[in-house]
Write a structure and sequence with these properties.
Helix content is 39%, strand content 14%. The chain has 437 residues and is of the alpha/beta class. The strands form three sheets. Strands 2-9-8-7-6-3-4-5 form an eight-stranded mixed sheet, sandwiched between helices. The protein has a four-stranded antiparallel sheet with strand order 10-11-14-13. A two-stranded parallel sheet has the order 1-12. Helix 4 packs parallel to helix 5, helix 6 packs parallel to helix 7 and helix 10 runs parallel beside helix 12. The longest helix has 26 residues. It starts with 28 loop residues before the first helix and ends in a 27-residue tail after the last helix.
Length: 437
């Protein structure tokens, strides 16, 4: 029998195709797009403060004056004037004097992640990642059939002793470690930042153990009270591939990111990118280059900081008011806080009941490779208004309180289907029925 009733080509797929899985975040999109649902799930930047009219004039000018070039194929490495400007952006991460020839422009930093996975990972190879880690990166590594091993973090980020112990243990087992994947600044999903004291230590450990570092820094310019700490790349440029993006500092629809890599890795990245997409968007690169040249882009990033700080404060205040039985991280920048639920609660099992109460989040299980994280949730404060954030947390608190009662009644993992629907919540509920919203 060939294939299945649902997919007649099932037997024809490559083995790695069966490792592709829907992201738990993407799966929520059809739900959270409903206007009555307060979404604390997605990491969409809030673009309301962008100067859209001026950007429209810039796009018009680009087409009228340079349209033949902007709408043509470009270099597989990326447009040189933009690569020079990217090196200027990276000076804010203490990467001074970077060579534009070592920069590869990609279709968002997600493509750079995928290219690194393609170049380095064979089936069964080990990738080290923070515990928890970015769901998009885990998807890339899973698709390449890697074995992701998580390394513990605390409120100061990746723990050096845990990294050393993990590397030593895996090497004794004869395992091949291809790289450490890390988000040092305002980490997704935990919201924590690798301390300045630990950064040279982490770089030195990986340099000594010959473990490549894949440093992902989409949020670095969005610190609420300070500029970024020195990038890991600044300590060990031959041991680090640094990934950047304009998705959070400008606009995700541009789909422009980059990799700054040692020379030999840069050559491989260009070849792999050309094989996948021929070249990154010339229009997008030239438009971005014009934006960086003509606008106060750093001032724009600072205005985003202020807006996101206000939303962070609203999130932390609402958690204090409505969810005192939980604990959470206190991010100094970025988009997210990481909430730990009371003992016995399962965020993934609870999610359908939360959506029926018109609030959404992402279960902690999305951010682990090994099935952990059920007692955690990631809450995003980047997109909703402060008022909606407070309302969303209020609704969520009603679901959490009801879940605690259900666990007491039925035990963990034994809650009957529908028992947590708003109209069936045991005892008084703070979650309003949908028709009252």
């Amino acid at each position: 029998m060939h294939g299945t009733r649902l997919d007649p080509w099932f037997d024809a797929y490559a083995e790695r195709a069966h490792n592709l899985r829907a992201s738990e975040i993407r799966a929520l999109f059809s739900v959270v797009s409903r206007p009555e649902v307060v979404s604390l799930a997605g990491g969409m930047p809030n673009l309301k403060d962008l100067p859209l009219e001026r950007l429209a004039e810039s796009a018009k000018s680009l087409i009228l004056n340079h349209g033949a070039q902007a709408l043509q194929y470009g270099s597989g490495q990326g447009w040189e004037p933009l690569r020079e400007q990217i090196c200027e952006i990276m000076t804010y991460d203490h990467i001074v004097g970077a060579d534009p020839d070592l920069v590869v422009v990609t279709t968002g930093s997600q493509q750079a992640l995928d290219l690194m996975a393609e170049l380095f990972i064979d089936t069964g190879d080990v990738v080290l990642a923070e515990s928890p880690s970015y769901v998009g990166a885990l998807g890339c590594f899973r698709a390449r059939q890697a074995d992701v091993v998580h390394v513990d973090m605390d409120e100061d980020g990746l723990i050096p002793s845990a990294l050393e112990e993990t590397i030593g243990r895996l090497k004794k087992q004869g395992r091949r470690i291809k790289f450490l994947y890390t988000i040092p600044n305002f980490q997704n999903p935990a919201g924590v930042t690798l301390s300045e004291e630990r950064r040279p230590v982490i770089a030195a450990i990986c340099e000594r153990e010959h473990v490549l570092i894949l440093e992902d820094n989409p949020y670095g310019l969005l610190g609420f009270d300070r500029d970024p700490l020195p990038a890991l790349y600044s300590y060990a440029p031959e041991t680090v591939v640094y990934l950047g993006s304009v998705s959070k500092m400008f606009a995700p629809g541009m789909r422009i990111g980059w990799a700054l890599a040692p020379h030999a890795i840069r050559d491989k990245l260009i070849l792999a990118s050309e094989a996948a997409i021929l070249s990154p968007t010339m229009f997008g690169q030239m438009f971005l280059s014009q934006y960086l040249a003509d606008y106060d882009w750093y001032g724009q990033a600072k205005s985003f900081r202020s807006m996101y700080r206000q939303r962070r404060d609203a999130m932390l205040s609402a958690l204090e008011e409505f969810m005192p039985d939980c604990t959470w991280t206190k991010p100094e920048g970025g988009f997210y806080t990481w909430v730990t639920l009371p003992e016995g609660l399962d965020a993934k099992a609870m999610l359908p009941r939360a959506v029926r109460a018109l609030v959404a989040y992402v279960s902690g299980t999305a951010f682990y490779y090994d099935g952990r994280g059920a007692n955690h949730m990631r809450l995003s404060f980047c997109y909703p208004t402060p008022e909606d954030i407070r309302e969303g947390v209020r609704r969520l608190s009603g679901v959490v309180n009801a879940e605690k009662e259900l666990v007491e009644m039925f035990g963990t993992g034994s809650i009957p289907a529908g028992a947590g629907d708003p109209e069936h919540l045991p005892g008084p509920s703070t979650v309003p029925a949908p028709d009252t919203l």
